[in-house]
Automatic annotation (TrEMBL):
Guanylate kinase-like domain boundaries: 247-439
Species of provenance: Lingula anatina (Brachiopod)
Gene: LOC106176432
Annotated SH3 domain residues: 104-174
CDD domains: GMPK, SH3_MPP
Protein name (record): MAGUK p55 subfamily member 7
Family: Belongs to the MAGUK family.
Amino acid sequence: MQGQMGEATIREFEESSIRREDPGHVGRFKTKINKSLTVFQVATKINNLLPGGAWKPKNCFSRTRLAVIIPYRDREFHLTLLLSVLHPLLQRQMIDYRIFVIEQVPVRMRAHFNYDPFKDTLIPCREAGLPFKKGDILHIVDQTDLNWWQARREGDKNMRAGLIPGKQLQERKEAMRRTVGTLDGGLYRERENKGIRSSTMNGSLDSRKARKTKKIMYQSENSSDFDNAEIITYEEVEKYYPESGRYRPIVLIGPPGAGRNELKRRLITSNPEHFSATIPHTSRSKKPSEVDGKEYYFVSRTEMDRRIAERRFVEYGEYKGNLYGTSIESITSALNAGKVCVLTPHPQALKMLRSAELKPYVIFIKPPSIERLRDTRLVPTTKGNTDNGMIQKTFSDEELHEMILNASKIEENYSHFFDKTIVNDELTTVFTELCAAVYRIEHEPQWVPISWVR
């Protein structure tokens, strides 16, 4: 450029490009901020602002062209304040500029552990920490620091973001706790889950009383998800909005005796046109009085084995030499018919059920305290039903303790799959709560794993 213009021409160009003597361009910068304005209102008050957030001086040629990139995520108030100051500041310097506001995709995580910053010895500042409970939805504001994220609780009117442990840090902390045998503050699945593995067809976790042997069907290369120790800290989620005529399956999980089968029966009986159970497959021979596709789908043993190998069953088992199983097709056929499919599978079946195709809503039916169980279950109570009517069953004290133990094992190993927990204290009250939950599922958006909606 110097070869074409010469030093004198360059000096004249510099002096004419910006009028340095203008008193409005020197001295202390003063601006008035109206905190009640919106971003749109701020833009309308900027003189000569061009479309796209651009501005350039009219009476001179700016030697500088500037692009300002502002990362933005759900903080309109702060963005308004920044633009109220930034526009007049840049215009005062006679800069040809354009402001780009890049809206970042919000990140929301479901927490799978409880956190109290005042009990955390690693946090840089306990007062800056954000306490939360297991199951809370956290709006992640900043993940720049891998060890300490900034977040706030979803729906919390307090705009202040606080520090929470990042995923990597929390996983390291939980791994250290695992080595000393503690499970507090996170979810740790032991490698040996013998009680969980020895399941029965009716959902019992005690193999000593098993009459039917249930097996949960997994590929060998994927079964390590339940065999190996696993730490669950956060799960990225997004809202799923109900689709008209397409319902999510209701999955009731719980130990035997907790009442999930009775709740399923009541739910289907309350509206058979809306709720539906799955029809299982079996390899046994059809009885003369049975109709294929009503009580069971009857297939050959060879066909059943083939479908099992093709991973088409969420769970299956063998009883008296015959195979029984719940297929994925039986669930999807109920959903395609516009019905709400209600299931009571073994907890390990959740691995197959929790998919973007099915989007199940999992409810853990939890027994109450042992004292309350003694008050309500030591007397004859409804255990199940048959074609001839209800079965009355009295639980022994040993069975009540086993129910509590099994519930604890299920909760310890599978609670990160639960969307809701209902304590079955009194059956009528619990059924009302279940119906209310089902109504919300069908009419209100719910948080689901982000892979289910993207």
